[in-house]
Every structure is written in structure tokens, then in C-alpha cells.
């Protein structure tokens, strides 16, 4: 990748951006053409994807260039409606890239499947029975999906959890049999669910209980991704705030989100702004990632910040983000949606683990930018600047008018729809004279 073509990327027109990506060697000529045409989902694919399909709901698909992750440069694709997200990711990538980039640790990828049993004549005996037949149950699960086993994956571990009756909701005792399953490059919901259904009869027979259900758990704590970064304080200076001030305030912002769930939700929402946008661009199930992330944020019983920020002995700022990231590079709509296929070529990743590394780094970047803005000038300045463009389009500005209204709105005392309407009317009137 020749990144010299990507300098001042945000200032280029859409066509110039596409050309720059091609010149930088990030995309092929054929992909440049596909981008110009819009990467849209063919009607037939849309029709077959969901029940009662009527139309296609589109989102902008953009890129945040300049991500240095584990020594490799990425131009990161993001599908997102919120104006400031890509700008924030790009700004963070620049600072963190100058400090050596992101470093990631990606765990082995194991998905979790659950079977809940109830009406057990003897809980302790049932647990013993399941554990004594562990190997046979795993084998049965693997027989339900032989192709994943052939490729080196499959059910690898089994555990039993006893959930005693809860009188406050009048629930029965549950015995939960949990399998850890390697689904390789797939997110694997179908593989896991097929395996769970493959073992239910055997579990009923072994335990004398009744199966209530068998399903994948989105609390994918056997599929964790971690990104870290280390930023010298002098790179953090902002306006009247020294680098050391910004570092200390940013650490306090994390501490606030660690102790206060009200703040933690918004803090994590900012992280998910980046994560969801890449997950969506990659064709993966962003609801699964959202659900798992927020559950992980509450893993010690209180909902807390997913990312942590601290000070190194030499005064550098240290950032770290860990969350479950059970994404796939095959399966679901990934093979069907042209934008998801394009994302694969753009990121040029070799595995689902590499895709996880990109996604978790974007999450940390997003958090860095949000906190840095919040503890210095506040986010409204940047947000409203970008919001001005949406307002201009909302009131009907077209072509050159969009830039004209945007520029004038940024200087206006009240940035709102009424002002945008007045500015557009004035621009149109002066154009007539
Ligand atoms: C807005 O979409 C996200 C932020 O609220 C995140 C945060 O507060 O950390 C800016």
C-alpha cells in the first residue's frame, strides 16, 4: 500500500477518493468501478434474504484510512449513518499510528452452545452422568455436523452448569450442558445449533430430564479479542491542554465510566459506533456482537467501561479494549452481499482472527477520540460541524448549495433547521441576481 496517495483523504471528492485508493494499491480497477456503481445488493438477493422484502434500506459506506494494526496498514470500511464516526476513527488512527499503532491478541475461536434441561429426577446424578459421558456427547455433536470436523473444527469441550430454582420467579432447577465448538472461519450459529439439536435426545436419556431448548450463546467469552495502544503524552496536546493534562483527564474519563453505569453505557456506545460499523460492512451479525459486548461489560456484576486507560511508568498513555468478537469471514450474508465481498478484498484479511484484530482496534480508536474530545473542547464542536452537512441536505440543498449552506451554518449562531432553510433561501435568491 502506498499511503502517500491517501494524504488529506477527507478533502478529496468521492471520485478522487476512489482513484486514490486504486493508485495506493488498496483496490483493483474492477473494485473502483464497483464502488462507483454503489455496491448495492441485487434485487433478487434482497428478495431471497428475508421474508416479505419490499425495498432496500441503504446506509453510507465509507473508509477510515491510516490504521496501523500489528504492523500492517489498513483502510478500514465502515457502514454508518452517524456523521462523526469515520472522522473520529481516522483522527485516532493518525495519532495512534504515529505512536506505533495498535497491537492485538486474539484468542482461540470457540463458540458456545447450550442445552437447558429441566424436570430432573436427581440433579447431582444427572450432572455426574453427563460428565461421565463427555466424550460420547462430544462425538455425537460432531456427528451432527461432520463437514466442520473434516476441516479441523468441531465440538472440543463440555461443561455442566447447575442453575438452582429461583423462588422469586418460581423457576425450576436447570441443568445446562455447554459445549465449546470450533467453527473455524464461520461465526457458526447454524453449526452450533445443529450440534445442539443433535445431542438433545441423548441428554434426555442420560439424565431422565426434559430438554427445554438448545441454542448458541452470544456470550462468546471463548472468542475474545484485545487491542492495546501506547501513546506518548506529547502526542495528546489539544488547544490549551498540555499532553499530560489530556492523558490524565482521559484516564479520569475511563475511571468515571468504570464506576458509573450511566456513563459506561454511553462510553461503550461510542466504542460500538466503530465496532458495529465495521461488523456491518463485513456482512456479520452486529446484534450478536452488541449483545455479547454489553454482557461482557457487566461480567463482574456491574456494567462497566469495556476499554481501560492508564498511565505507564514513563508517562505514556496506555489503552486496552477486550470484548467477544465472534465474527466470520464466510456464511450468512457475507457471500451474498456485494459490499461484504468488497470489504473482504479491501481489508485483504487472511482469517476471521485478522478481521477481529481490525474490529477491536477500531473500537479502541473510537473510544480514544470520543474521550479526548469530551475531556477537552467537548464533542459538540466536531459533531455539529459534521451535522451541518446533514442539515443542509435535510432542508433540500443540492450540488454546490450543500457546501455553501454547510460553511455558512458552521459560522451561524444557531445551527438548526430554521437557520439552514434561511441560508438556503438566501443562497438561491442571490444566485438569481
Ligand atoms: C456518540 O455517538 C458517542 C459518544 O457519546 C461516546 C462517548 O460519550 O464516549 C461521543
From TrEMBL:
One of its GO terms (molecular function) is hydroxymethylglutaryl-CoA reductase (NADPH) activity. InterPro entries: HMG_CoA_Rdtase (IPR002202), HMG_CoA_Rdtase_bac-typ (IPR004553), HMG_CoA_Rdtase_cat_sf (IPR023074), HMG_CoA_Rdtase_CS (IPR023076), HMG_CoA_Rdtase_NAD(P)-bd_sf (IPR009023), HMG_CoA_Rdtase_sub-bd_dom_sf (IPR009029). PROSITE patterns: HMG_COA_REDUCTASE_3 (PS01192), HMG_COA_REDUCTASE_4 (PS50065). Pathway: Metabolic intermediate metabolism; (R)-mevalonate degradation; (S)-3-hydroxy-3-methylglutaryl-CoA from (R)-mevalonate: step 1/1. Gene3D superfamilies: 1.10.8.660, 3-hydroxy-3-methylglutaryl-coenzyme A Reductase, Chain A, domain 2 (3.90.770.10). GO terms for biological process: coenzyme A metabolic process. Its EC number is 1.1.1.88. Belongs to the HMG-CoA reductase family. This is 3-hydroxy-3-methylglutaryl coenzyme A reductase. It comes from Pisciglobus halotolerans.
Amino acid at each position: 500500500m502506498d499511503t502517500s496517495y491517501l494524504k488529506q483523504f477527507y478533502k478529496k471528492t468521492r471520485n478522487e477518493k476512489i482513484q486514490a485508493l486504486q493508485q495506493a494499491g488498496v483496490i483493483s480497477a474492477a473494485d473502483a468501478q464497483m464502488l462507483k456503481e454503489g455496491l448495492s445488493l441485487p434485487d433478487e438477493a434482497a428478495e431471497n434474504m428475508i421474508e416479505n422484502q419490499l425495498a432496500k434500506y441503504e446506509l453510507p459506506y465509507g473508509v477510515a484510512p491510516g490504521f496501523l494494526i500489528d504492523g500492517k496498514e489498513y483502510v478500514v470500511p465502515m457502514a454508518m449513518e452517524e456523521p462523526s464516526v469515520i472522522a473520529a476513527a481516522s483522527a485516532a488512527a493518525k495519532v495512534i499510528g504515529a505512536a506505533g499503532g495498535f497491537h492485538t491478541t486474539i484468542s482461540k475461536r470457540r463458540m458456545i452452545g447450550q442445552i437447558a434441561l429441566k424436570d430432573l429426577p436427581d440433579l447431582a446424578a444427572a450432572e455426574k452422568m453427563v460428565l461421565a459421558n463427555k466424550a460420547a456427547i462430544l462425538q455425537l455433536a460432531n456427528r451432527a455436523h461432520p463437514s466442520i470436523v473434516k476441516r479441523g473444527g468441531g465440538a472440543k469441550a463440555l461443561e455442566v452448569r447447575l442453575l438452582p430454582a429461583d423462588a422469586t420467579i418460581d423457576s425450576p432447577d436447570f441443568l445446562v450442558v455447554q459445549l465449546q465448538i470450533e467453527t473455524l472461519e464461520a461465526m457458526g450459529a447454524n453449526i452450533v445449533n445443529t450440534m445442539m439439536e443433535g445431542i438433545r435426545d441423548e441428554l434426555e436419556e442420560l439424565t431422565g430430564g426434559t430438554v427445554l431448548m438448545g441454542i448458541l450463546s452470544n456470550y462468546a467469552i471463548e472468542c475474545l479479542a484485545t487491542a492495546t495502544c501506547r501513546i506518548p503524552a506529547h502526542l495528546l496536546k489539544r488547544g490549551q491542554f498540555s499532553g499530560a493534562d489530556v492523558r490524565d483527564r482521559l484516564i479520569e474519563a475511563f475511571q468515571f465510566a468504570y464506576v458509573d453505569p450511566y456513563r459506561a453505557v454511553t462510553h461503550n456506545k461510542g466504542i460500538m459506533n466503530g465496532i458495529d460499523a465495521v461488523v456491518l460492512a463485513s456482512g456479520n451479525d452486529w446484534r450478536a456482537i452488541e449483545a455479547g459486548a454489553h454482557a461482557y461489560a457487566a461480567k463482574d456484576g456491574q456494567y462497566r467501561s469495556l476499554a481501560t486507560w492508564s498511565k505507564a511508568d514513563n508517562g505514556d498513555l496506555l489503552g486496552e479494549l477486550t470484548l467477544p468478537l465472534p465474527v466470520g469471514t464466510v456464511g450468512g450474508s457475507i457471500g451474498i452481499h456485494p459490499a461484504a465481498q468488497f470489504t473482504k478484498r479491501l481489508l485483504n484479511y487472511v482469517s476471521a482472527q485478522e478481521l477481529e484484530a481490525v474490529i477491536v482496534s477500531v473500537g479502541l480508536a473510537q473510544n480514544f477520540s470520543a474521550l479526548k474530545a469530551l475531556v477537552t473542547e467537548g464533542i459538540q464542536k466536531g459533531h455539529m460541524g459534521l451535522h451541518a452537512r446533514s442539515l443542509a441536505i435535510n432542508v433540500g440543498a443540492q450540488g454546490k448549495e450543500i457546501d455553501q449552506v454547510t460553511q455558512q451554518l458552521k459560522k451561524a449562531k444557531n445551527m438548526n433547521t430554521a437557520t439552514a432553510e434561511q441560508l438556503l433561501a438566501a443562497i438561491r435568491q442571490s444566485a438569481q441576481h
